[in-house]
Every structure is written in C-alpha cells, then in structure tokens.
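Run log // design_07
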C-alpha cells in the first residue's frame, strides 16, 4: 500500500489557556484560592486589592478594555423564586483611553500560558508584620515521641538509663503501646554495654509514669491498670475495676455479663458501675497527642433564614476584591513594541483574564449553591431525615452546565448553614424506592437508622433485620445488607456489641 498525504477537515474541542486557568481556579478550595490570589498579586503589578470604601464607578462601563473588580456576589437569592444576579462591578477610569486598543481575547490553542505571559509568582511571605506570623506558618504538631522525650529530659537518669529510655520510646507506636518485647529491646544494644533485662524493665516502669496515663503498655490490660493506678485511692469501685482489667477483660470483651457477675460476686447495678469506670479510661492513650497539622475549613457559601425565606450569599470575608491598577494600566501605549511596553501589555492581559476567571468562578459557585439549597430546603428546615435524593445530573440540568463542572464546583467547597458546615457534596446522595412509589435519600435513611439505634433497648439492641423491618413499616424498602452497610458507615457496632447492662 503506497503511503500518501491526505488533507481532511474536522472539528475538535481544545483547551485554550484561558479555559485551563478558569477550570483550575474553579476546582481550588478557598484556602488554595487565597494562596493563588496572593501569588498573582505579588507577581503581577497590574493587579491590586480593592479596599472597602474605594469608589471607581466614574468611567464608561462600555469602554473597551475596562476591567472590573472581582468580588464575591453580595446579592441574596430568594428561594421562593430562585434568582441569580451578576456580581456588582466597578470600572476603572483610564486616562485618555490609552489602553482602549483591542487586546486579543484568546491565545493560540497549542500554546501554554507561560509561553506568552510571564508568571514569576513568588511564594515568599509578605514583609508586613501584621500579616506574617512565623510560628503559625512554620510550626508543626507535636509527635508522641517528641512529647515523651521532652518528659525524659526533665527526668533525672544516668546516661545508661537515658539511652535505654530513648530506645524504648522509639519502640512506642502512635497508639501508645510498646511494639517490641523487652528481650528484643535488650538484643538491640551493643553487647559491650552489658545491658540486662532487669535494667530495661526498670526503665520501662519509669516511662510508664509519663503522660499520657497508660503509655508504654504492652497489652490492653496493662494499659488500663496503669491508668487505674493513677486514680485517687478513694475512687469508688477502684479495686473491682483493677480486678476486672487484670483477670476478666476477655469476658468483658465478649459481653458475658452473667459470668462476670458470678465470678466477681457483684450484682447487676454494681457491675454496671465498675464497667462505667473501665469505659472512662482511654484504650489508646497515644492518640491524645496529635502529630498532624490542623486543617481549617473556610465556608465558601453562607445560607441563612430571613423572614421565613432561605437566603444564600458568597462568603465575602474569604475572597479579596481585586481590580486592575488604573495608574499602571495607563502606562500601556499603543503602537509601542518596546520590551517594557510589551511586558506591561502582557501583565495587563493576564490580570484581565485572572479577574474574569474569578468572576466566572463566583458566578458558577453561586448558581450551583442556589440550586442545591432549592432542592434541599427540607434538610435546612427539618434535618437529615428530610434530605432528598440528588445527583450531579439534576444540578447540571438546572444550571445548564456539564456534570464534570458541577463535580469541580462541589469538591472542597463548603456551605455554612444554621445546622453546621457541610461540603457541597454532602447534599448529593443516592435514592431508595418507597412503597408509595416515591424516593428516599440514603442520607435520610442513615439518619433514621441512627435515630432508631439511639432509642433502642440497650439490653436487647436492634438487629439489622429488625431495623430493615422497621424501615419497611415506614414505607422504605431496604435490604438487610444495605442496612448493615449504612450502619457501618455511621460507625455503629453490630447488635451483639451494642448490648449493655442497664
């Protein structure tokens, strides 16, 4: 077959640099977007913050090239008649119309943003003392090992015992338990140090007196006994709790209360008080020391009720208002191809696209949040049990966008409601058919299961089959295995583990 060249015409979708930037900003969380805006402000002299009280509405809004401030929408949406209004705009007045020249609205599709525009964004902190806090930007959470080593440094020990203690601390896992046996710890030392098992055990007892209580235990029983020994001697039922933790912990785990009462010679009410004392202890003492950095959630959308109507607005505090600097923009000259003028022209175009992308993000987020609240008005009024089934396709059809766009908008975006702060994805859930031909969301079913378990008889907890029967009595057709799946997602133990003494 002879090779040949063939010319064909066709259409295909391509991602322009402007569209790539808009999509990237759309899927950023609020904290990431704030960092992106700060980097843009530091790298682009054409961009500046618009402070409160600034008034720039003194120019012709139809002037070609004029730019507006990208600010969160301050309009409220009425969900009796859901509407959406454009964000308020302020227009910069540029002298003599020096940059009225038409700047290309699009780049060639096969170019990258950095190929045309300089983006020397800096991630260095600002020199403003009011904004820069070294401790909050550089500190990390304290680990369990560092917490124990700090206490070790305050304890009087010989150099040999301090070496043993540091080795033991390295063998403690994040739950607070000693992972290695004492024989393994002894074998890890150099034989020339002549460290014996009795010395290691003595140092271990010293470490077990550190905070948090119960640290460096080898078993659950030892962990509970260490915590009980630090309680005041006059604590009610202390001796019985120590006996239970030492001898009958396996019976407590299997909830064999009749055997416990018989072996410990206690009545039901007395055994209940002993068990309550045991349950007040922490089986994982190391978990009290958080080693990870704190994560903060900044709501993107605020929903509130006013005059029996639900109103939604973007969080103005989370989004700085930007505008094009009119003084720098006025330096751009037409028909000037010098390096300085080309740089300013590129920075101006980049600033204009960045502001438009922010406006597009705010508008899309507002539209999606408006439709979500319109669909889930029952949840806002009555709680989880009134949550309606909702999928991405429903919102995409309502706002006239693709489902992938709705997915980007709802990822890592949070809504502040009178019932708490929820990620936008929380309001989407699958549905289950009802006996009347309707639908019930999985979120509502989980709420009903949680309510049924909270009201059950602790001596005779509800099984998954019984819960499925109670749901069917309410017209919700759910299989037993589905109930088990929802129960596990709520962190609720099986009925055999929920059985308790009254």
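design_07 sequence
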């Amino acid at each position: 077959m002879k090779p040949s060249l063939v010319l064909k015409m066709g259409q295909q979708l391509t991602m322009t640099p402007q569209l790539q930037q808009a999509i990237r900003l759309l899927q950023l969380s609020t904290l990431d977007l704030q960092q992106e805006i700060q980097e843009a402000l530091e790298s682009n002299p054409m961009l500046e913050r618009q402070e409160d009280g600034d008034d720039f509405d003194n120019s012709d809004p139809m002037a070609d090239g004029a730019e507006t401030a990208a600010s969160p929408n301050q309009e409220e949406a009425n969900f009796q008649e859901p509407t959406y209004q454009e964000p308020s705009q302020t227009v910069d007045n540029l002298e003599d119309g020096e940059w009225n020249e038409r700047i290309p609205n699009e780049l060639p599709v096969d170019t990258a943003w950095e190929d045309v525009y300089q983006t020397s964004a800096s991630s260095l902190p600002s020199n403003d003392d009011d904004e820069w806090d070294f401790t909050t930007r550089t500190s990390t959470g304290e680990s369990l090992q560092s917490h124990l080593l700090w206490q070790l440094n305050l304890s009087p020990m010989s150099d040999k015992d301090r070496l043993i203690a540091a080795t033991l601390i390295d063998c403690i896992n994040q739950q607070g338990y000693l992972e290695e046996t004492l024989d393994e710890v002894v074998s890890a030392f150099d034989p020339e140090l002549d460290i014996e098992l009795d010395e290691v055990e003595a140092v271990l007892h010293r470490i077990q007196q550190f905070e948090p209580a119960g640290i460096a235990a080898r078993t659950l029983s030892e962990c509970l006994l260490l915590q009980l020994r630090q309680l005041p001697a006059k604590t009610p039922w202390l001796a019985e709790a120590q006996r239970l933790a030492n001898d009958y912990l396996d019976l407590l785990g299997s909830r064999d209360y009749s055997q416990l009462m018989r072996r410990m010679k206690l009545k039901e009410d007395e055994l209940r008080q002993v068990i309550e004392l045991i349950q007040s202890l922490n089986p994982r003492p190391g978990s009290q020391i958080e080693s990870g950095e704190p994560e903060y959630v900044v709501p993107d959308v605020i929903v509130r009720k006013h005059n029996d109507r639900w109103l939604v607005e973007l969080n103005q505090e989370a989004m700085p208002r930007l505008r094009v600097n009119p003084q720098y923009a006025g330096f751009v000259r037409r028909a000037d191809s010098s390096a300085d003028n080309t740089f300013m022209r590129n920075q101006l175009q980049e600033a204009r696209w960045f502001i438009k992308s922010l406006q597009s993000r705010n508008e899309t987020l507002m539209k999606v949040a408006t439709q979500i609240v319109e669909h889930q008005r029952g949840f806002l009024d009555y709680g989880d049990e009134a949550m309606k089934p909702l999928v991405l396709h429903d919102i995409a059809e309502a706002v006239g966008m693709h489902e992938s766009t709705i997915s980007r908008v709802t990822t890592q975006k949070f809504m502040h409601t009178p019932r708490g702060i929820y990620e936008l994805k929380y309001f989407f859930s699958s549905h289950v058919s009802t006996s009347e031909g309707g639908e019930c969301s999985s979120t509502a079913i989980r709420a009903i299961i949680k309510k049924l378990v909270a009201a059950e008889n602790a001596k005779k907890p509800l099984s998954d089959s019984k819960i499925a029967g109670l749901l069917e009595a309410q017209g919700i057709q759910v299989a037993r295995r589905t109930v088990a799946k929802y129960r596990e997602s709520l962190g609720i133990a099986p009925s055999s583990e929920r059985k308790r003494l009254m």
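Residues 56-103, 118-139 have pLDDT under 50 and may be disordered.
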